[in-house]
Amino acid sequence: MSMTERIERIAVCPGSFDPLTNGHLDLVARAARTFDRVIVAILVNQQKTPLLSTGDRLSLAREVFAGESRVRVETFEGLLVDFAARVGAGAIVRGLRNVGDFEYEWPMTVMNRKLRPEIETVFLVPAPEVSAISSRLVKEIWRLGGDISGLVPGAIDAHLRALARGPGTER
Question: Does the active-site annotation cover 135?
C-alpha cells in the first residue's frame, strides 16, 4: 500500500434495535462522522422474544437509513467480534447514556478485546435530548398506550401504531 492509499474505516453499531429509537439514530450519525462506513448490526437472539420480528427490525432499519449511503444494515448471530471481523470492521461503537451503561458494557469490552484484540470498542455519549431514550422504555410506553412519536423515527412509530390496532393493519 502506498502512502496515499487510505484504508476504509468500518465500524459496527450492534444492538437488538427492538425498536430502533432516536437515540440509536444519534449514535449512528455520530459514528458516521467518525468512520467511513457504519454497519448497523441487528442481533438475532433465539433466547429472547422481541416485540418486533427480525424481519421487521431489518426492513424498518433499512427504511430509516435508506438515505445514508455510508450506513448498511445487517443481522448477525453469535459473537459480535466474529461478525465485526467478517465484515472488516476495526471498531465496535457503543453508546453510553449513564454509569449503568458503562457497568454493563465494561466486561463485554474487556472480553471482546481478549477474543479479538485488533477490534477496538469506541464509546460515544449521546446528545442530551436523546440520552434518556431506551428501547425498553419505548416498549413500555407503547404497551401502556403512550405517545412514542418523539422517541422513535416516523417509520417505527407508524409500524407500532399499526401493531397496536391489531393483526392485518401493519403498514
Answer: yes
Per-chain mean pLDDT for the chain: 93
Residue 154 has pLDDT above 70, yes or no: yes
- Catalytic annotation present for 24: yes
Per DSSP, the chain holds a count of helices (H) and strands (E) of 6, 5
Known catalytic membership, residue 149: no
With a threshold of 0.70, does the pTM exceed it?
Answer: yes
Catalytic-labelled residue, pool 16, 24, 30, 37: 24
Displacement of CA 97 from its chain's centroid (Å): 14
| Separation of alpha carbons 102 and 52, rounded Å | 26
Cα dist. 31→28, 65, 121, 163 in Å?
5, 13, 12, 31
